[in-house]
């Protein structure tokens, strides 16, 4: 019964989303495209934060590596955009492996700090035009459009289908992965690292794989982003981008695919609706983040399996 | 060589400011194991409050300028301290029992709230601090020309840090703070009001941050609503560098980071100034995650 209801809900949601281009103008389609992009990015971050429980606030760095790989190879060597999709993912994954390797043993907050430092170092390196290939603070422009068998994706309406199809694919893959032994091991690490290690889970290995997979997916989104914008600059990959992604995951419901997508709608979509209130909307946004954590710390749509936590926290327990 | 010593003094003055902000991070982390992301914005509030008081009431007009600045700093410290206490009550106390990530997101929300509040109240553009408050004197120390302001900033930071160190190490309340930092439950059993101690920490830390805000305004002459973020991050690096949760560590880390940055900007590249700070952070965390003065804490099972 429940399964049936879920299928209907998913179908209704998909139908609603995919009919958007018929009645929304280009501006709102672009907003929905951004929501889709952030949703895919947040899903890839969810792999690291939501499933594995690692405090990772530097996801924009992986996104940046993907986007810059695409931009550099496309503008300097005119490699087709779609061919660069897996290449960007692989570059981001390699980068993630190299930076995560020495820090993977760090505990909670220390990992959080070092990932913040990584995203800032990447941004500063991009601004300073490392190896003379990143174009400095102006970034890189003139990136070409994706092309499917002679059909070029240009307008927001066309990007809409490209992005949301990619999101649908991501949801499908992550949903399949959720049932796997591999993600169960990640969840085990999240819930009790010491016990997981005690029962023979190679923690460092699994954590590293989580980083690499999350980064691979983020790198591919970097490719889509670069081809959508046609120009990229270091400011698109600053620390606040990482924070936004992090907040989408936590506010939506860490570890839950539905939650993360809802989070992307709320964090990217809502401020757009209230655009005319300029500064005040961000004030409310900040206050809402605090209120959300105070009244519903598990997020809007927490994963269903979390209904039965491994241990309940009693008032007075030291959990800091 | 002269250039080297000038950079050293620059670095120490800026480092003193970093250290003052870092103390707020380190004290809060020490008692609550929470990175207070809103701390940098409390610092910004401090420097804007200082600016408003300076321009509206000209405290320095009828008092000796040095005495006036002292009163100004104390007023700002009190006001920012109150904001800090309210912040803890509203945003951090309710999530104390929840998941660690909830507290992080709550802190980020508070940071966004405060920086936008500053923007709405004082406007989005750079604001200029009056530069005629203190006499512009340049002292000649051992053949080096050092502006008086730089020395004052350094001395004020060191005095404030000294008072704090004495307070935490020698007084009864300070002992209570250290006890709470070690174990909330045990401290409560010993009759310490843990909530009150945490409130006190959120009074002292932000107050020091507010003082640093005024000093940055006086030192650089201009303030902006986004500056809390970069100073906050630097100060945070300083706190980690010295060993987070460790008060002398934060002082040492702040001064050290100021000097490293000044030297890096002078001898390597100005463009990489911030990058150097972050790379120091990464290296420290890889090789000595507990910082220079921090002790290794055993994992709790």
Output the structural class of chain A: mainly alpha
- Count of DSSP-assigned helices of chain B: 11
- On the 0 to 100 scale, the average pLDDT of chain B is 86
Q: Please state the oligomeric state of the protein chains shown.
A: heterodimer
Poorly predicted ranges of chain A:
none
Spatially, the strands of the biggest sheet of chain A line up as 1-4
Report the β-strand fraction of chain B as a percent range: under 5%
Fraction of residues in H or I helices of chain A: 55-70%
Q: How many runs of DSSP E, i.e. beta strands of chain B?
A: 4
- Basic shape of chain B: globular
How would you describe the overall organization of this protein?
Chain A contains 13 helices and four strands. Chain A has helices at residues 2-18, 20-23, 26-51, 59-77, 81-100, 108-127, 156-178, 181-191, 193-198, 203-229, 239-253, 257-273, 278-295, and strands spanning 140-141, 147-148, 151-152, 231-232. Chain A has a two-stranded antiparallel sheet with strand order 1-4. A two-stranded antiparallel ribbon of chain A has the order 2-3. The N and C termini of chain A lie far apart (40 Å). Chain B is mainly alpha-helical and 301 residues long. At the A-B interface, helix 6, helix 11 and helix 13 of A face helix 4, helix 9 and helix 11 of B.
């Amino acid at each position: 019964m429940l399964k049936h209801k879920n299928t209907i809900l998913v179908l209704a949601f998909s139908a609603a989303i995919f009919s958007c281009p018929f009645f929304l103008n280009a501006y709102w389609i672009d907003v929905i495209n951004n929501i889709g992009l952030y949703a895919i990015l947040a899903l890839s971050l969810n792999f690291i934060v939501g499933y594995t429980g690692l405090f990772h606030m530097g996801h924009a760095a992986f996104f940046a590596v993907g986007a810059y790989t695409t931009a550099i190879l496309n503008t300097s060597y005119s490699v087709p955009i779609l061919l660069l999709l897996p290449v960007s993912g692989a570059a981001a994954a390699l980068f993630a492996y190299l930076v995560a390797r020495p820090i993977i043993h760090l505990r909670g907050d220390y990992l959080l700090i070092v990932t913040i430092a990584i995203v800032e170092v990447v941004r500063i390196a991009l601004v300073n035009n490392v190896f003379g290939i990143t174009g400095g603070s102006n970034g890189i422009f003139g990136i070409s459009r994706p092309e499917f068998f002679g059909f070029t994706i240009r307008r927001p309406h066309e990007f809409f289908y490209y992005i949301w199809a990619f999101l649908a694919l991501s949801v499908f893959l992550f949903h399949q992965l959720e049932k796997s032994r591999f993600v169960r091991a990640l969840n085990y690490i999240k819930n009790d690292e010491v016990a997981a290690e005690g029962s023979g889970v190679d923690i460092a290995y699994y954590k590293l794989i989580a980083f690499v997979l999350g980064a691979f997916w983020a790198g591919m989104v970097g490719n889509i982003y670069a081809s959508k914008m046609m120009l990229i600059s270091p400011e698109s990959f600053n620390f606040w981008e990482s924070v936004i992604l992090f907040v989408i995951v936590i506010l939506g419901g860490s570890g839950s695919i539905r939650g993360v997508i809802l989070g992307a709608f709320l964090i990217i979509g809502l401020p757009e609706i209230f655009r005319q209130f300029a500064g005040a909307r961000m004030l409310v946004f900040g206050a809402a983040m605090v209120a959300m954590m105070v009244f519903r710390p598990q997020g809007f749509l927490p994963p269903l399996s979390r209904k039965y936590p491994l241990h309940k926290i009693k008032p007075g327990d030291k959990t800091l | 060589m002269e250039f080297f010593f000038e950079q050293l003094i620059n670095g120490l003055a800026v480092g003193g400011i970093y250290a003052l902000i870092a103390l707020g991070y380190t004290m809060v982390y020490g008692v609550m194991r929470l990175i207070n992301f809103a701390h940098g914005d409390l610092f910004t509030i401090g420097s804007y409050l200082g600016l408003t008081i300076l321009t509206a009431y000209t405290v320095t007009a009828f008092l000796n300028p040095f005495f006036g600045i002292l009163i100004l700093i104390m007023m700002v410290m009190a006001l920012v301290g109150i904001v800090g206490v309210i912040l803890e009550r509203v945003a951090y106390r309710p999530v104390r029992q929840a998941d660690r990530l909830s507290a992080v997101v709550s802190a980020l929300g508070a940071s966004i709230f405060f920086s936008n509040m500053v923007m709405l109240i004082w406007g989005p553009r750079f604001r200029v601090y009056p530069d005629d408050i203190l006499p512009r004197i340049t002292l000649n120390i051992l053949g080096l020309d050092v502006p008086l302001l730089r020395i004052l900033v350094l001395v004020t930071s060191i005095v404030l840090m000294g008072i704090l160190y004495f307070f935490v190490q020698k007084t009864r309340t300070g002992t209570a703070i250290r006890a709470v930092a070690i174990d909330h439950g045990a401290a409560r059993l010993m009759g310490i009001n843990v909530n009150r101690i945490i409130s006190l920490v959120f009074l002292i830390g932000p107050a020091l941050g507010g003082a640093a805000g005024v000093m940055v305004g006086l030192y650089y002459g201009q303030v902006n609503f986004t500056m809390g973020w970069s100073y906050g991050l630097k100060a945070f690096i300083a706190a980690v560098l010295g060993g987070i949760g460790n008060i002398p560590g934060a002082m040492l880390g702040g001064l050290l980071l100021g000097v490293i940055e000044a030297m890096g900007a002078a001898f390597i590249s100005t463009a990489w100034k911030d990058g150097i700070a972050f790379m120091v952070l990464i290296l420290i965390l890889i090789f000595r995650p507990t910082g220079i003065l921090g002790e290794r804490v055993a994992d709790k099972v």
